[in-house]
């Protein structure tokens, strides 16, 4: 068992004697770290990610996505159990799966309580590339059930953030538009639980048919306060009813069901990447109110509880206007089961109607 209090004291004491290169202890480290720590990201050749930190960001179904800030919640209470990184406060652990990219064959690293395959790490001693001091790194071992090897990387996402990915062993593919940068994960002890943090919040009041949103002061990513329990979405179809909510009375027209990156090979990450709002009481009214209040021209709901905004989208993401194309956007909204809020990497896409102009939904045949 690795005692971070001992390690931390040793690192501080050793600072006065730091040289160009530290001395690596020969005793191997345990794969258990019960003391809380923060995860730092290092790649000295890439200043855009070097010495940044892993943050948690609430996603659908109780999952937490992993980002390098400014997106997400600074997290100071990770632990390691049998090589698996846990966050006990949220009852989640780091896993790999979903959003596999056909371009570079990387896969999403995220955190969940569901039984997805674990990301397995081994603590090792190493020398800090900047200071030469001894540090503890989380060397990636494998994606559970897959061949040994590979590494963790990060790639540009939105609002200046980077998302975490898994790059398999022997992979030589590179996405020239969104390179996944290889990184080292470093254990930083937080013996006192880390500093207190304050997060931007949006309050949503929900009824069965509508939500009123108090929008944030800027069109940046936000976290919603919520008291409901969210579960993984179940795809639902309704015979005889088109799976979208008519928002023309509020000045928004439905364009169609747009694909996200998983179903395309065109490069962009999100169809809409201007702002994101997440809530366990999400409705289309809440999403349109949020995007409209912040001046965005397009809005879309996804995965029951996500709202995305933007001023443009790639032509390759233009939805089809066939009845069959609507089938992918059939997840019921978390805040109103009578509405549809996208699907699994499919976006129910709306456009703001011009003031005084026509406001008509697309026609599907």
TrEMBL record:
Keywords: Glycoprotein, Membrane, Signal, Transmembrane, Transmembrane helix. Residues 251-353 form the WSC domain. Residues 205-239 are annotated as: Disordered. It comes from the Eukaryota. InterPro entries: DUF7909, Kremen_rcpt, WSC_carb-bd. It is found in: Membrane. Residues 1-22 form the signal peptide. This is WSC domain-containing protein. It comes from Podospora bellae-mahoneyi. The lineage of its organism: Eukaryota, Fungi, Dikarya, Ascomycota, Pezizomycotina.
């Amino acid at each position: 068992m690795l005692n971070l209090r001992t390690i931390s004291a040793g690192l501080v004491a050793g600072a006065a004697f730091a040289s160009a290169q530290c001395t690596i202890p020969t005793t191997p480290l345990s794969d258990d770290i019960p003391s809380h720590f923060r995860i730092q990201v290092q790649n000295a050749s890439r200043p855009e990610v070097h010495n940044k930190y892993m943050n948690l960001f609430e996603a659908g179904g109780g999952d937490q996505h992993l980002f390098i800030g400014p997106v997400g919640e600074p997290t100071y209470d990770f632990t390691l159990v049998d090589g698996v990184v846990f966050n006990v406060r949220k009852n989640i652990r780091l896993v790999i799966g979903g959003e596999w990219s056909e371009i570079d064959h990387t896969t999403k690293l995220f955190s969940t309580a569901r039984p997805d395959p674990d990301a397995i790490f081994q603590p090792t001693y190493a020398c800090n590339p900047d200071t030469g001091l001894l540090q503890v790194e989380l060397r990636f071992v494998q994606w559970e059930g897959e061949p040994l090897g590979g590494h963790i990387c990060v790639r540009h996402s939105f609002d200046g953030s980077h998302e975490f990915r898994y790059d398999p062993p022997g992979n030589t593919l590179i996405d020239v538009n969104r390179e996944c940068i290889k990184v080292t994960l470093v254990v930083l002890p937080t013996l006192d639980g880390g500093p207190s943090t304050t997060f931007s919040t949006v309050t949503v009041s929900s009824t069965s048919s509508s939500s009123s949103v108090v929008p944030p002061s800027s069109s940046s990513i936000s976290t919603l306060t919520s008291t409901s329990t969210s579960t993984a979405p179940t795809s639902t179809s309704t015979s005889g009813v088109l799976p979208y909510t008519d928002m023309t009375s509020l000045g928004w027209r439905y364009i169609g069901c747009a694909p996200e990156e998983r179903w395309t090979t065109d490069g962009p990450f999100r169809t809409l990447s201007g702002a994101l709002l997440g809530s366990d009481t999400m409705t289309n009214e809440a999403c349109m109110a949020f995007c409209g209040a912040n001046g965005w021209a397009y809005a879309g709901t996804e995965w029951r509880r996500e709202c995305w905004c933007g001023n443009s989208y790639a032509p390759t993401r233009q939805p089809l206007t066939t009845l069959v194309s609507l089938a992918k956007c059939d997840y019921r909204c978390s805040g109103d089961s009578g509405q549809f809020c996208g699907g699994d990497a499919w976006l129910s896409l709306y456009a703001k109607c011009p003031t005084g102009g026509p406001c008509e939904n697309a026609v599907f045949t």
